[in-house]
Amino acid sequence: MLRRGLDPDVGNHRTALAADALESLRRQSPLAGIVPTLREGLRSVADGERHVMAVADADGRVLWRTGGRSGRRTADRVNLAEGACWAEESAGTNGIGTAVVARTPLQITSTEHFVRAHHGWTCASAPLHDPRDGRLLGVVDISAPAAEVHPATLALVTAVARVAEGELRARHWQSVERLRSTAAPVLARLGGPAIAVDRYGWTAAVTGMAPVDRVALPATPQTGRVWLPSLGPCVLEPLPGGWLVRVGQAPGPAAPGRVVLELAGPRSWSVSVSGAMGSWSHHLSPRHAELLYVLALHREGRTAAQLAEALFGDPGRTVTVRAELSRLRRRLAGVLAHRPYRFADHVEVEVRGPQDPLDLLPFSTAPAVLAARRGRAAAQEVGPASRSRPASPEWR
Known about the structure:
alpha+beta, Beta-Lactamase, 3 domains, five-stranded antiparallel sheet, 17 strands, 30% helix, 24% strand, globular, disordered C terminus
């Protein structure tokens, strides 16, 4: 934090957004529809005289705040206000910013805050995820003086966050049901295998083949030929609220040729796959970002034990590694190979990391990532395994 120029006395988050800019963010935020659920679920705590409830977006920007009169006054003094940015790079270790990075419920007590002005607070926070694609939408936080925080506050905040995510999930399935009604007569007229999916790839209806839960669509789907993981060559046709995927209708190259692993951001990471028949991208969980980073550095491949050592410092944790790789291979069919686990030989892989290696995957405690931060490893742009290339000029 000090290296980034963060003031340990008051932080660098004193400026809040103008009212019109704040209102614009609120209107655009997918959290707007669940704020009433969060308020109702946390009312018994948030209405306490010295408590404050805040809802922030995925950048740590506070969009909504409520609480008791005394709590609001105290929050104003440290700029825990609507429109203020509480990301770690602005406010140091704190309930909102640290939950954004860690993507897990957590509690930051008193002196665990980096900024001294925040030492009077204890914060319990939980992340909020989009059930359609798993991306982080924001954080809900309860803050109060340490003596006022009940031991069960974190459990309550976590439970209410899960209820709010469940509300988002229910709305999503309602939209899938509407698409199913629209797609059913279309599928009935087709003579070959096809799937109707929503804009996020979730299956609404299927004909002529075994059902799948979800299809990895291109980053920007367009009508025409595409290559899709686990399905191979397909043709996309638009439907109201989604796409008709006609499977096996497109001759041509059956595999992608280039993978870009984007690790430059402090909180959001993705993998993009492209080839002759189109491209798609996938947001990565912290664990999947670590796994793909290690595989990108070792194009010759890694056994489950070697990956467990690289991620956990314990070669015995192979069951966890295999389970995570199984999930990844379902999303990246044709890109990842096994025995040993590796990127397929025909795939060109590029890793794009932060300008400062110390900022690589800041949440991670994996030995391989810690070694990279210390300069013992470098991100690489690697071609097919038979012609690996030196460190990528795009690592910045």
